Amino acid sequence: MSAPSEVRTPAPAGPTGAPAAVSRHRRIPPGIWFVLPFMLSYAAFVIWPLTRGLWMSFHDTSLVRSGSAFVGLDNYTRLFADPLVWSSLWTTLVFTIGSTIPLVLIALVMALLVHSGARGQWFWRLAFFAPYLMPVATVALIWNWLFQNDVGLLNGLLGLVGMQPVGWTSDPSVALWSVVLLTVWWTVGFNFLLYLAALQAIPPDVLEAAATDGAGRWRTIRSIVIPLIAPTTGLVIVLQLLASLKLFDQAYILFVGDGGPEGSVTPVLQYVYDTGFVGYRLGYASAISYVFFLLILVIALAHAWLAGRRRSA
């Protein structure tokens, strides 16, 4: 007599008729495994520091003292009465306006010159963009030599034309503009590439039609080219504003962290650094940084709102 055959019960079916195990497996999007490493890194290095910093801004956290007491809004009320906060913020705003305008205009002129068909375009593109590839420490050291009062190249050139030497890094009224000059030379290449890409995207038949109608070069640039690249100009302006507001590296290295003559080149981020890691007041430094973060956020949202209105119009 043969043994009875084994009776197998089928696995319970899922809602679509597939086995439940397969159905549960399919509920997990396969793409999650590709983005999970990034999400974990983002949470560890962005979300957690932001949350921790916000928590510290409401406490008297210090680097030299364990434990911290809750102080509420005391750090925020104190910073609004701190003259050093306002002076460093004013320095940052002056640098932002003073660097953004030339970085937009000079980049546009450079892109127009290269796009005009001048000979040796590869050389001009390399020459305009090469400084942007340098690390900030190298750029600061180069310009530190150029700014020297006695043996610097800039004062040497001024002496050749009979002008008095300028205290590029020692005169409080000039030191900040020295950082502006350094920054323009260093970063204008990035804006130049954005403008060059926008110019190359203009349809050639539009320019040919303008030439056929008798429009000269300047009229074509003013009435056709500049309006067509207006979205790129808006992008360049907002990117430059956000980058200039974060002034720290070049000023800190050029003046060896002392804020320049009479503190005239102390941006708000350097004041945050000095407060938190030199003065050991991490809670107060966090409060300043979050107020500054709100300022940057307002500028970014204002640009997004204006860009949306421009597109709808």
From TrEMBL:
Main location: membrane
Keyword annotations from UniProtKB, A to Z: Cell membrane, Membrane, Transmembrane, Transmembrane helix, Transport
Annotated spans, Disordered: 1-23
Residue runs in coiled coils: none
Membrane topology: Multi-pass membrane protein
Residue ranges occupied by any ABC transmembrane type-1 domain in the UniProt entry: 89-303
UniProt-listed Gene3D superfamilies: MetI-like
Stored InterPro entries: ABC_transporter_permease, MetI-like, MetI-like_sf
CDD domains linked to this entry: TM_PBP2
Pfam family for this entry, one: BPD_transp_1
Record field: transmembrane: 32-50, 89-114, 126-146, 174-197, 224-243, 287-307
Protein localization: Cell membrane
Compositional bias per record (Low complexity), positions renumbered to this chain: 9-21
Protein family (similarity comment): Belongs to the binding-protein-dependent transport system permease family.
Protein name (Swiss-Prot/TrEMBL): Sugar ABC transporter permease
Organism: Pseudonocardia kongjuensis
Lineage, highest ranks first: Bacteria, Bacillati, Actinomycetota, Actinomycetes, Pseudonocardiales
